[in-house]
Write a structure and sequence with these properties.
The protein is α/β, with parallel strands linked by helices. The chain has a nine-stranded mixed β-sheet with strand order 6-5-13-12-11-7-10-9-8. Strands 1-2-4-3 form a four-stranded antiparallel β-sheet. β5 and β6 form a beta hairpin. α13 crosses α20, α15 crosses α16 and α23 packs across α24. The longest helix is centred in the middle third of the chain and has 25 residues. It is extended. The protein starts with a helix and ends with a helix.
Length: 635
């Protein structure tokens, strides 16, 4: 027992001794601890200095030049040129108390939005031309998307697409800013006086002179409700002798109210000016289209891929067809048939028929409403087919699919479906058309298929709630009433537009902006189409043509095309011609076949017009002779 107690007492002493040794050991001085790592710090510092020197040497050697989308030669010439002398412009005072000139109130676009005078890169791409030195022939943003499969033989290779030159479009006329400056200041004074007469105090903060209207930006005094200004639209139009006045309250992104008053002279915006703008030249999308020019003088270039679908509405003569021509022409200038395909549906027959036989078309321009419904049905099938291809490659959209292609594989093109008149299609087959449009609008964005739908009757039975919910981008031209404006863009304002291209553009998820649409004439469109037809022929999809032809056939024609005639049909025809009459029981006895087989043979002969239709219990009469029967089976 004593040894056991001794062991228990000894264990605490040993633990205490080890604890005392560890605690009693003095800590090293801080200087000694740092001195022990001086060698490592010195080596690490030398290694970092060497890495920095090597990295700097490589960056100088392989440094990339800054990206200059415009021509460097022209930019350099502009930088070296001496600044032009500034002429003295007479100051037009808006108020005697405050010396505010038109230059202080004028709202201009940013520098990068100003149009340039150089040529736009829409000619045939040629790296040997001098334009390559200016950065026109090569565009890195375009290089990722263009991956055309190389054909096995030269005979099967399609001819290269000849991009139409920009000279086929007419250039816009210059506008003198000094002419409208004094008139704008006079209207500004009248506007201020009109508001003061109604007891509204507001300060004029800016003037934006656009192609069709001038927007006067007013900042109301504290305590003035915006609704008081908006209710005076008719009174302002009366005092200013204006056709109509539209008030935007408030202006998005500004603490001001915009009063839009029509100009005395409307400026024509040419499509060439829009396509030659900096925004259009820098845009990487193949389906970016030029819409027009807004109030601040900025050219509006919209990407259909980001819309991703657009609904256009306006009464007759407001500019819908010109807008559609501008959209199609912009696509023809920017993309080849291997990159973008078009499906044009024109129930009015005369609007889009000029584009027949261009290589971008999947099928001829569709004018029959029944074929139009079938074309939309084919587009839904094409969308489903594309999604199956995406699933096989494990990608999510058309960009991922085209990036995953190997050398020699065919590029999947984007597809734009343009419908010029939706109201006519909804009258012929509303159920099929609405279902196809809704399916495409919901699912077709990721597979590169986009809808552009136009109508002149924006009523609820044409633009249904399901269609509106799936098409977020809207373009509203002049409409007849405020009800149509609310149906189209969910608020009023379109009924006060001036027509002739004056539009309200509502992008996806943004507020509306007023734009003067780009003008392209029929002669210009004809020249562009003829130029494209000379360089290549149309290659229509045979499956889609067969699908559309099948839509207008009768049931008998569908059955005739779907299957060949029965092998024993010639024998049955020979029997009924010999007998002079036809019946199911007679064919059963003579041909030794069953009732169902004999009944099918009699029905087939009736569909082909060989025997008459059933007339109760009487036998059917034979309607052709033996010679006619032989001619029928001659092939």
């Amino acid at each position: 027992m004593a040894s056991i107690n001794f062991g228990k007492a000894a264990a605490p002493r040993r633990n205490k001794k080890l604890y005392n040794e560890n605690v009693a050991k003095p800590e090293p001085e801080k200087d000694e601890l740092f001195d022990s790592f001086d060698g490592f710090d010195q080596l690490e510092a030398e290694a970092e200095a060497y890495d920095r020197a090597e990295k700097a040497e490589k960056s100088e050697k392989f440094a990339r030049k800054p990206f200059k989308p415009d021509r460097p030669s022209i930019l350099k010439k502009d930088e070296d040129a001496e600044p032009a002398p500034v002429e003295d412009v007479p100051v037009v005072k808006a108020n005697k108390k405050t010396n505010v000139s038109i230059d202080d109130l004028k709202i201009e676009p940013e520098d990068y939005e100003q149009p340039d005078d150089d040529e736009a890169p829409f000619d045939v791409p040629d790296k040997d031309k001098k334009g390559a030195e200016a950065g026109i022939a090569e565009k890195k943003s375009f290089g990722k998307l263009k991956r055309v499969a190389e054909p096995e033989t030269e005979e099967d290779a399609p001819p290269p697409y000849a991009y139409p030159p920009i000279d086929l479009l007419a250039r816009g006329e210059g506008v003198d800013d000094t002419d409208h400056s004094s008139r704008d200041m006079q209207k500004a004074r009248l506007l201020e006086d009109t508001l003061k007469s109604f007891g509204i105090s507001a300060k004029l903060t800016g003037i934006a002179h656009g192609p069709a209207v001038t927007r006067f930006e007013l900042q109301p005094a504290p305590g003035v409700k915006v609704s008081r200004i908006t209710s005076l639209a008719d009174d302002i139009a009366l005092n200013l002798a204006a056709m109509s006045v539209r008030i935007e309250a408030p202006i998005p992104g500004k603490a001001a109210v915009g009063v839009e008053i029509p100009n005395d002279k409307v400026e024509m915006v040419r499509l060439r000016d829009v396509l030659e703008s900096t925004d259009a030249r820098k845009h990487p999308s193949r389906i970016a289209v030029g819409l027009g020019k807004d109030n601040s003088g900025r050219y509006i270039v919209a990407d259909i891929a980001k819309m991703p679908h657009v609904l256009i509405a306006g009464q007759t003569g407001s500019g819908k067809s010109v807008c559609i021509n501008a959209i199609i022409t912009s696509i023809l200038f920017r993309s080849s048939p291997e990159e973008v395909k078009l499906i044009l549906i024109d129930p009015k027959v005369v609007e889009l028929s000029i584009y027949n036989d261009i290589p971008h078309l999947v099928c001829p321009v569709v004018t029959d409403p029944k074929k139009a419904a079938s074309a939309l049905d084919w587009a839904v099938a094409e969308m489903t087919k594309r999604y199956k291809l995406f699933a096989e490659r494990g990608v999510r959209d058309i960009k991922g699919y085209n990036k995953s292609l190997k050398k020699g594989e065919k590029l999947m093109p984007q597809m734009v479906i343009i419908i010029d008149e939706l109201a006519d299609l909804m009258m012929v087959s509303p159920g099929e058309v609405e279902d196809s449009i809704c399916r495409l609008a919901q699912l077709a964005r990721a597979c590169g298929m986009h809808l552009v739908i136009a109508t002149q009757r924006p009523s609820v039975n044409v633009i249904t709630g399901i269609i509106k919910a799936n098409i977020p981008t809207r373009i509203a031209f002049s409409v007849a009433s405020q009800v149509d404006s609310r149906t189209m863009i969910d608020h009023g304002g379109a009924e006060k537009l001036l027509g002739n291209g004056d539009m309200l553009f509502v992008p996806n998820g943004m507020k509306s902006m007023r734009v003067q649409g780009a003008w392209v004439s029929d002669d210009e469109v004809h020249k562009i189409v003829e130029y494209i037809k000379q360089s290549g022929e149309a290659n229509y999809d045979p499956d889609m043509l067969e699908h559309m032809e099948n839509a207008v056939r009768t049931d008998a024609e569908k059955e005739e095309v779907a299957s060949e005639y029965d092998p024993r049909l010639p024998e049955a025809i020979d029997i009924v011609i010999d007998m002079g009459q036809a019946s199911i029981s007679m064919l059963q006895r003579r041909m030794r076949i069953g009732y169902a087989k004999a009944g099918r043979l009699i029905d087939e002969m009736a569909q082909r017009g060989i025997v008459s239709e059933a007339d109760g219990a009487k036998p059917r009469q034979v309607l052709i002779t033996r010679e006619e029967a032989q001619a029928m089976f001659e092939d």
